[in-house]
Amino acid sequence: MQQLAAFLSSLSLGSSRSVAGLTVFPLLRQPAPEPWYDTLTEAVGAHMARVTEVSDAGRVPELQVVNDSPRHVLIVDGEELVGAKQNRIVNLTILVPPKTSLTIPVSCVEAGRWREVSREFTPAQHAYHSSGRRAKVEQVSMSLRSDGARSSDQSAIWGEIEMKSARMGSNSRTRAASAMYDNERHNLDKFVEGLPPQDWQVGAVFAIRGQIAGLDVFDSPRTWASLMPKLVRSYGLDALDRGIGGDGFAEPSPGRFLDAVSAAQCTFYPAVGAGRDLRVEGGGILGAALTTEQGVVHAVAFPAADVTHPRPRRGSFDRLRQ
Asked: Cα 274–8–138 angle (5° rounding)?
């Protein structure tokens, strides 16, 4: 808990920007290190990593990552992988050590296909939508508490995709979540273009129509710049869904939200790959973080589903520059 709280206290809030109901409150870190790892997209693009089914038969909740690089490879919670027998999302943030083959836990986001279209997966240009990520974080945390596994509720994920696709008027023959992003590509690109990274930015608190939706933060500005488009599209898809977010009249308090994340109870587990898996719960917060000896690599947090939004009270982050 102290490691995450200390990391968050090292950040400051930058000037907010909004596009079509989605507001970004930048999280800045100065000085900030260069990353000592590559993102999955970078490693796959350099032909230094590949993701495949675990075997010719395949298993829905697992994939195989082969890292041929001399550097670690970072795979972020909710990243979507497209191809092979069916599209999947990653259940939690993972650091794959150098020169390592690793089996990773995933969830299916394409219920109507079990047919190979490629030998290897391609990292998508988006992460799974933020409300779905929130539910999955809760499911994986429950799985860790109950049996030490890192499993999601696959039926619940399929059901949530079906309801969201219906709200957004998205049809897919294979019931693929990616169809929603394809249908809204023009609008999602507007979010990315209108919310570019600021100097020293390592993450952001996101709000949808005045209601805090969550945060993603990394240890390095270069990592944020690389992954920001995927995450903006993740929150952006929820901003386009009128069943998500506030009424547009609330005034979100990112400082108060960060205070709540810092104060939440934390439990550590061995990570999949390098580092430690930290689960964050309590005080109206659901979240997770990947930590190493170098510090926090990535943290994600969301308001719990039953959180109400009373008048903000001043906290340590509310006193920071906005």
From this structure: 60
Phi, psi of 163 (to 5 degrees): -70, -40
Domain ranges of the chain: 2-319
Res 243: pLDDT: 86
pLDDT for the residue 316: 45
* CA–CA distance, 154 with 157 (Å, rounded to integer): 5
pLDDT > 90: what percent of the chain? 89
DSSP 169: T
In the sheet with 100-108, reading across from the earlier edge strand, the strands are 49-53, 62-67, 100-108, 88-90, 79-83, 121-127
CA 138, CA 127: separation in Å to the nearest integer? 17
d(CA 130, CA 145): 23
304, amino acid identity? A
Q: Where are the alpha helices (DSSP H) in 151-309?
A: 154-167, 178-183, 185-194, 221-239, 254-263
Q: Give the ranges where 89-211 is alpha helix by DSSP (H).
A: 130-147, 154-167, 178-183, 185-194
pTM above 0.85, yes or no: yes
Contact 212, 143 (CB under 8 A): no
Question: Measured between alpha carbons, how far is residue 214 from residues 25, 254, 259, 284, 300 in Å?
Answer: 11, 9, 13, 12, 7
Buried b (16+ CB within 10 A) or exposed e, 82-95: bbbbbbbbbbbbbb
Residues forming beta bridges with residue 110, ordered by sequence position:
176
**Tens-place pLDDT, residues 171-222:** 999 999 999 999 999 999 999 999 999 999 999 999 999 999 999 999 999 9
Other C-beta atoms within 10 Å of 167: how many? 13
